[in-house]
Amino acid sequence: MAVRDDRRYTADHEWLLLHGGDGTVGISEYAQDELGDVVYVSLPAVGAKLTTGKPFGEVESVKTVSELFAPVTGEVIAINESLADHPEYVNSSPYDDGWMIRVRLDDTAEAERLLDAAAYRATLPPGS
Q: Is residue 73 part of a domain?
């Protein structure tokens, strides 16, 4: 499973890619693989407030419905509208086309408390 070194991760398998005071959020390749074929993604509205560790949306797959948890506190500044018509991007391109939201962080230092790529890899089952 690919784990990109340029991101921070949560134990719940969300990732955060920082761009100055903003960040892009999605789910890891491991998470999408565990979910199976994604058929629907529910995302918050632009302007919604996120709180670290609280749900911000859902991913529905052929296997299950899973909540998405905010990796940081902040305000949603963009959503990936293409996921409404192409939820499969979460499976085919979890780190690129399958991104979910962009958030303006209340405190960029909060991102440092997330797992780096090496620490996230260590949480995955052997062989992942």
A: yes
- Domain with 41 in it: 8-114
DSSP strand pairing (8-9 vs 22-27) = unpaired
pLDDT tens digits for 107-118?
999 999 999 999
For the chain, what percentages of helix, strand and coil (3-state, to nearest 5) are there?
20, 35, 45
Is 3 within a domain? Answer: no
The whole-model pTM stands at 0.96
> Contact at 8 Å (CB) between 44 and 55?
no
Mean pLDDT of the chain: 96
17 is written with which tokens? 């890619």
**Does some domain include residue 29?**
yes
CB count, 10 Å around CB of 58? 13
Instruction: Tell me how far CA of residue 59 lies from CA of 35, 40, 42, 62, in angstroms.
Output: 9, 6, 6, 10
Q: How many structural domains compose the chain?
A: 1
Which residues are bridge partners to 105 per DSSP? 74
